[in-house]
Amino acid sequence: MRHLFFCIDGHTAGNPVRLVAGGAPLLHGANMAERRQDFMARFDWIRTGLCFEPRGHDMMSGGFLYPPSEPDSDIGILFIETSGCLPMCGHGTIGMVTFGLENGLISPREPGRLRIETPAGILDAEYTTEGNRVRSVRFRNVASYLAEQDVEIDVPGLGPLTVDVAYGGNFYAIVEPQGNYTGLDAFSAADLIALSRVVRERMREAVEPIHPVDPRIRGVSHVMWTDRPSNADADGRNAVFYGDNAIDRSPCGTGTSARMAQLVARGRLAVGDRFVHASYIGSRFTGRVEEATELGGKFAIIPSIEGSAIATGFNTIWIDREDAFWKGFSV
Ligand code: PYC
């Protein structure tokens, strides 16, 4: 039996986005958060089959568009990635909004504006166009906050590290230069991946952050290695590890949101400030601290992230149950 998926492939700031425009399963659930649970319980094979080899690769990421559950929203998004079915994904949002608009899959009620329902919450987005092309997307992300401070771990090969955990739609362990981690230039991507696996494991042993309002969102999933920018036109750069083998090619939208929440909580960034984040390959997102807020009694911020995406082609993929690797594999 073959399951057919019609996809629009492309990338946001270098990181892949596979918008599955045909073949999305019908999901149960009153909102995108409940539909995410249903998808994980019944359809995770679609995620693994489309994201992992031989149809995808370690960085593969994307999602589906659904009718939103609440009347004020224009569109619902469900994210898939090699790391799982994320509550929220920033580069994915920018890519799927771009490809959805350019191909007539999203019709906003007000041109230039969109209200998007994600499993992590509602996003208000603005976009600019030139002809049929979407040139940029800025979205106001979900409330983001510093969840854990100064967690001490010991990493073989690197030694002791003091690490914060911040939330920007996913929970990030944030490693700043210190001790033997002297900055990104001293490490290859393979080094960072190997070290990240250990950092994530040690952090999971040490803390389990739980979203203050939605306990279904919990646990450190990503590791962000930070550094000073290499050029004056950025405020920082990073390498974000996800899944088991991936370094985000984009500056990571939820990671940049988490980083801004951490910096505001530590008094190193203020409401109204702009924060240009460079990725491991030098691509950029422009973040802004839109406002201070509160999340389940905790201090939080509303960050916004701006970036752009480009489609690379249509891709008709099937998953054939006779294929030994119909669910995908990773080495
Ligand atoms: O842009 O939020 C993001 C993201 C999450 C994982 C990879 N990219």
UniProtKB/TrEMBL annotation:
PANTHER family: TRANS-3-HYDROXY-L-PROLINE DEHYDRATASE (PTHR33442:SF1). Pfam families: Pro_racemase. This is 4-hydroxyproline epimerase. Its EC number is 5.1.1.8. Belongs to the proline racemase family. Keywords: Isomerase. GO terms for molecular function: 4-hydroxyproline epimerase activity. The keyword Isomerase applies. Gene3D superfamilies: Diaminopimelate Epimerase, Chain A, domain 1.
